Amino acid sequence: MSQNSDRRFAAFRGAHVIITGGVGLIGSALARRLVGLGAEVLLVDSMVAEAGANLANIADISERVRVNIADIRDAAALRHLLPGQDFLFDLAGQTSHLDSMNAPEHDLAVNCTAQLQLLELCRSVVPAVTIVHAGTRQIYGRPRYLPVDEEHPLRPADVNGVNKMAGEAYHLLFHDAYGIDTRSLRLTNVYGPGMRIKDARQNFLGIWLRRALEGAAFEVWGGEQRRELLYIDDAVEAFLCAALSRDTAGLAAAALSSSANFRPTGSASISATSSPTTAASAR
Ligand SMILES: NC(=O)c1ccc[n+]([C@@H]2O[C@H](COP(=O)([O-])OP(=O)(O)OC[C@H]3O[C@@H](n4cnc5c(N)ncnc54)[C@H](O)[C@@H]3O)[C@@H](O)[C@H]2O)c1
Fold it and tell me: Where are the alpha helices (DSSP H) in the chain?
């Protein structure tokens, strides 16, 4: 069965879908899959230089999607773009943990305040829209046990984690208080084609992959860390499944795929358990 004739996702055929952060790593892969499924896709992205936006990510589908360069903090722009949308994949975000510590108010504005504003707009303009928010595993902070699950206490280790946690909490609140059909996926380190590899801003794997492609050595600091990796196709699948599952409404789920051990040998020894994406739901 081809991915595009996957009957599980027939509901996307002809559906109007808006993806914020749609020119970035995950947004563009999601757009490609949705176009293949027959959706009418609108990408909204501010194309900030510090993030993963890259028009090369959508070069192969540029004739089949609409792109609107806009900032999610711009309520007037979103008020204009939201009417008629059936699904909203809410991926735009300030993603750098280091930048969030250096410019905490910018992170607050994008990852938290803009989320509240977006939800308020949805409530007034498209109250029946189905939303999937891109949350992050970062909100758990340093793990107290492994694997981290949805029962794990929340203790973000940086400003980005605090603001993503609050942004997610607004989604769950708007479900409970107003019946908005929204849920959040707490993503781990997503990797795959389209990721930013010129530096480590997207996640640490970017710089490793670049060095590997160049045939150069890369440093593994410490080497005792464990990291959860999520391949882009699995992340996209999780977003599509979450959008079509009524059971996930009002919930946050950890999106897990594989785990990796990094040993202090100068190279990475990655042992992927390669279990299918888990999307267990919890509050
Ligand atoms: N990639 C990961 O490992 C990972 C892990 C956890 C959570 N997430 C979350 O997933 C989402 C997508 O991440 P990604 O990896 O695709 O990152 P990305 O940087 O590739 O994509 C984010 C996109 O958002 C856009 N953007 C940033 N600020 C914006 C604004 N104010 N208005 C409009 N667009 C804006 C950027 O231009 C970029 O294209 C983010 O919300 C991120 O927090 C990603």
Answer: 25-36, 75-81, 97-102, 104-108, 114-125, 159-178, 205-213, 232-244
